[in-house]
């Protein structure tokens, strides 16, 4: 998520990243190594939304040196997942938090856990588009069907604007037959109805190192294969957005 976000920022876009993971994985990988010590996080803002308290512009937003902003998360978000169960309008608390920020940013990227709990439902209810990263492994492919079912259910019942932006294959080791077979299987099974990004994110030891450094792959290994892959993905995402806007304009005429 952070590499795509910083890639978009490098293309001149104003980007907000939102950590929707109680483990704070995105927050930690962006350099805030002690997320439990942060005074304001996504949990704080969602609690305000639940209590009908105003959220001030810039509330809880951290600024990263590579030009993106972040709403961080920590373990308090796990308690928020439980609290949401008994909340009125529980699927739309995150949307309430982000509604005012939408005017300030070109892109807001929500980084979710692989689970399909209430926080992920909130993220899908707030989103216009979902990008589905998946490893080129058999078990990941099995879980994709359940995720697609959940996305379509949210679209029908909560957020009719929700679109699937595409499936992104990650940690692809092109040297193994297994990865190539899964990659081909996903493209054959879903490519006709869902976009599968042409860009694959390759497996790389250099990429795994950056989570402890708080910098993007563009800073850590600017000429490496993963950096190039994220540049290609960024261009693909921007091109898709341009196509969507053209379609919307043609429909209005």
Question: What would you say this structure looks like, in words?
Answer:
- This protein has helices spanning 2-10, 25-29, 42-50, 76-84, 93-99, 118-126, 138-157, 177-190, 205-209, 217-220, 225-252, and strands at residues 15-20, 62-63, 69-71, 107-112, 129-135, 163-170.
- With 253 residues, it is α/β, with parallel strands linked by helices.
- The strands form two sheets. It has a four-stranded mixed beta sheet, sandwiched between helices. It has a two-stranded parallel ribbon with strand order 5-6.
- Strand 5, helix 7 (138-157) and strand 6 (163-170) form a beta-alpha-beta unit.
- Helix 1 (2-10) packs across helix 11 and helix 5 (93-99) crosses helix 6.
- The relative contact order is 0.13.
Query: How much of the polypeptide forms β-strand, as a percent range?
Result: 5-15%
Number of helices: 11
Gyration radius (Cα, Å) is 18 Å
Q: Kindly state the mean pLDDT as a whole number?
A: 90
> Which structural category fits the helices and strands?
alpha/beta
Beta-strand segment tally:
6
Which strand order spans the largest sheet, edge to edge or round the barrel?
Answer: 2-3-1-4
Helicity range of the residues?
A: 40-55%
Low-pLDDT stretches are none
Largest sheet: 4 strands, mixed
Listing every helix as H and every strand as E from the N terminus to the C terminus, the arrangement reads HEHHEEHHEHEHEHHHH
**Shape, please?**
globular
Oligomer category:
single chain
Q: What gap, in angstroms, lies between the N and C termini?
A: 35 Å
């Amino acid at each position: 998520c952070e590499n795509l976000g910083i890639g978009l920022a490098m293309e001149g876009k104003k980007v907000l990243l939102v950590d929707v993971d109680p483990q704070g994985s995105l927050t930690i990988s962006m350099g805030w190594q002690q997320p439990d010590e942060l005074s304001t996080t996504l949990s704080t803002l969602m609690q305000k939304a639940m209590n009908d308290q105003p959220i001030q512009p810039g509330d809880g937003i951290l600024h990263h040196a590579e030009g993106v902003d972040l709403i961080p998360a920590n373990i308090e978000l796990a308690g928020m997942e439980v609290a949401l169960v008994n909340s009125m309008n529980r699927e739309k608390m995150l949307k309430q938090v982000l509604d005012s920020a939408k005017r300030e940013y070109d892109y807001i990227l929500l980084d979710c856990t692989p689970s399909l709990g209430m926080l992920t439902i909130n993220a899908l209810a707030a989103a216009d588009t979902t990008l589905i990263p998946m490893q080129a492994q058999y078990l990941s492919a099995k879980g994709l069907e359940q995720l697609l079912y959940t996305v379509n259910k949210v679209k029908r019942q909560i957020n009719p604007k929700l679109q699937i932006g595409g499936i992104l294959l990650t940690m692809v080791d092109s040297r193994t037959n297994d990865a190539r077979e899964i990659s081909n299987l996903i493209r054959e099974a879903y490519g006709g109805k869902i976009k599968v990004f042409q860009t694959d994110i390759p497996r790389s030891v250099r990429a795994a190192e950056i989570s402890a450094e708080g910098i993007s792959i563009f800073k850590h290994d600017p000429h490496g294969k993963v950096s190039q892959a994220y540049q290609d993905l960024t261009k693909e995402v921007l091109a898709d957005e341009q196509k969507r806007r053209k379609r919307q304009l043609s429909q209005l005429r």
